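Hi V.,

Quick status before I head out on leave. The structure for the redesign project is tokenized and pasted below; the design run finished overnight.
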């Protein structure tokens, strides 16, 4: 489940239309998103995500780490992706 949905999660994050997202990488459901420095820090976007109900962690200055539960299902992941898109809009 982690491998299958992790690949799905990374592909969907890469497809988000946001100039703030510079790179997306992951292994299983542990995913990192690098933020363009001229558009804010990882901490700035983590605060936006928290307001949408998404827990994330800033690592280093420009990276956001997502680590959803290993038992997450695709509908819940899709719901999270909608909230992530809204936070990056």
């Amino acid at each position: 489940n982690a491998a299958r949905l992790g690949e799905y999660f990374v592909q969907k994050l890469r497809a988000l239309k946001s100039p703030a997202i510079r790179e997306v990488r992951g292994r299983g459901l542990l995913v990192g998103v690098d933020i363009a420095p001229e558009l804010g820090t990882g901490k700035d976007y983590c605060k936006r995500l928290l307001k949408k109900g998404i827990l994330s962690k800033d690592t280093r200055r420009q990276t956001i780490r997502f680590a959803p539960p290993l038992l997450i299902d695709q509908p819940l992941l899709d719901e999270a992706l909608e909230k992530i898109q809204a936070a990056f809009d």
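Above is the designed sequence. The chain has a mean pLDDT of 95.

G. will cover questions while I'm gone.

Best,
W.
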